[in-house]
Specification:
This protein is mainly alpha-helical. The chain is 77% helix and 0% strand. It contains 22 helices and no strands. Helix 9 packs parallel to helix 21.
Length: 459
């Protein structure tokens, strides 16, 4: 997983002249004492120059603190430590480790074979299998890049061998991977819950129906494209094959049942569920399937440590940024900008969705959540939006951002996996943005899709 997640926000770079002008603009703002403007200008200048996102956040905040002189420099270190000093964040390394163990333990192959036997008989069958396998794997990893990097390799190769257009194969693989952080468990939901003070358990449950909805609308689009392009069925339905593949994948399929069922039943907290997932994945890989050797286990552990360190460094840097925005009452200023539409949930949500889509094109998901939650959540709550519902909306928006340039992290991952140029990968993904935006609108304006299960179980 470390190969699919880095400190960098993407590969978007700007010409030197533009970079020089941006730096000059930052200097002018600093000389004029416009320190909040300087903070934002510095952040986005560093972002478009390709500086690692954690350094963009912490560096711009450190410059702000030094130039403004409002607080001692040591406050930066204190805020970074406080930003990651949270019990729910302990779930992150364990969910990452569980996902890595699944990818390296042969579990993804069993899931794919079962999905093929279950849905491969439909027109454009491997496209449907792609979505079905992603939905199952979503209940194990909680990260889009884990899905893209793990299942993506298997799915794209299978679709190539079956004669599918490569752009179609990459496009549906990219789109289906965004289901990962919506269906529980979800790493972005954990970050949001910490920043918003919302129940991570409720957020997990709230994402279940929207995640399944995303799968349904993607499968409808696959059916339409398969009919237009003449894709045929990839296999015939055979009850015996379904029974055999289900038996092979049964223990693997229990993983999401253990995670989600344990949280819903109250047996586990989300953090404890993550630990249980790791223990179960280790049991499958070392005792049942015997695919995890000592060397693989060491490799997986090092990848988990690296990825966790990157995520927590981003959270630490973003927590300083969020604290500065809050202490300078930027939230109140943003609410004032919403003024005339502040009491209209529809208008507020439309505008927030637009902001999140734009931000998602340029900023890494975790950084975007930690920066924007203190700013946008009060606006949404003031308009009568439940914080749990807003969390699902925010994460879904930012997942779509993973498929859009210039950042497009999932597209870059699949470009490397498939050896297809980024531009072709992007072209193949564009048709599948339509059903994802449809799902976003439905989740945004039909709160019951997100809130029915949390209300039923927790309230």
């Amino acid at each position: 997983m470390s190969s699919t997640l880095s400190l960098r926000h993407g590969r978007f770079m700007v010409p030197p002249v533009v970079a020089i002008l941006a730096v000059a603009f930052c200097v002018v703002l600093a000389l004029q004492g416009q320190y909040i403007g300087f903070l934002f200008a510095t952040l986005f200048t560093l972002l478009v120059m390709g500086v690692p996102i954690a350094i963009c956040l912490a560096g711009s905040c450190l410059l702000y603190v030094y130039l403004s002189g409002q607080v001692p420099d040591i406050i930066v270190a204190h805020r970074m430590i406080n930003g990651v000093d949270s019990f729910p964040l302990l779930a992150i390394p364990f969910f990452i480790l569980a996902g890595n163990l699944m990818n390296n333990g042969g579990i993804t192959n069993r899931i794919f074979d079962f999905a093929l036997a279950l849905m491969g008989w439909m027109r454009g069958g491997l496209g449907h299998v792609n979505v079905g396998a992603s939905i199952v794997f979503s209940g194990m990893s909680g990260a889009a890049v884990a899905d893209a990097g793990g299942l993506g390799t298997i799915e794209i190769k299978a679709m190539r061998d079956a004669g599918y257009d490569q752009e179609f194969a990459v496009g549906i693989t990219a789109a289906s991977s965004t289901i990962g952080p919506i269906i529980p468990p979800s790493l972005p939901m954990v970050i949001y819950g910490v920043m918003a003070g919302a129940s991570v358990g409720q957020l997990f449950v709230a994402g279940l129906v929207p995640g399944l909805l995303m799968g349904v609308v993607l499968m409808v689009m696959i059916a339409i494209l398969a009919r237009r392009r003449g894709y045929q069925r990839d296999t015939t339905f055979a009850l015996k094959t379904l029974r055999v593949t289900f038996a092979r994948a049964f223990l693997s399929l229990l993983t999401p049942v253990i995670i989600v069922g344990g949280i819903i039943s109250g047996m586990f907290t989300p953090t404890e569920a993550a630990i249980a997932a790791v223990v179960y994945a280790l049991f499958l890989g070392t005792v049942v399937y015997r695919t995890l050797t000592w060397q693989r286990l060491v490799k997986v552990s090092m990848e988990t440590i690296e990825t966790t360190a990157i995520i927590l460094l981003i959270v630490a840097g973003a927590s300083i940024f969020a604290w500065i925005l809050t202490s300078n009452q930027v939230t109140q200023q943003v609410m004032a900008l919403f003024g005339p539409i502040a009491d209209s949930p529809v208008a507020v949500l439309l505008l927030i969705n637009l902001v999140l889509i734009i931000v998602g094109c340029f900023m890494e998901t975790i950084a975007a959540i930690t920066i924007l939650v203190p700013v946008l959540l009060p606006v949404a709550v003031n308009a009568g939006v439940d914080p749990v519902h807003f969390g699902v909306i925010m994460v879904l928006n930012l997942m779509i951002g993973l498929l859009t340039p210039p950042v497009g992290m999932v597209i870059y991952v699949l470009s490397r996996v498939s050896n297809i140029p980024f531009e072709r990968c992007m072209r193949g993904t564009l048709p599948f943005l339509v059903p994802l935006f449809l799902a976003l609108l439905l989740v945004t304006f039909i709160p019951a899709l997100s809130m029915w299960l949390p209300t039923l179980i927790y309230r």
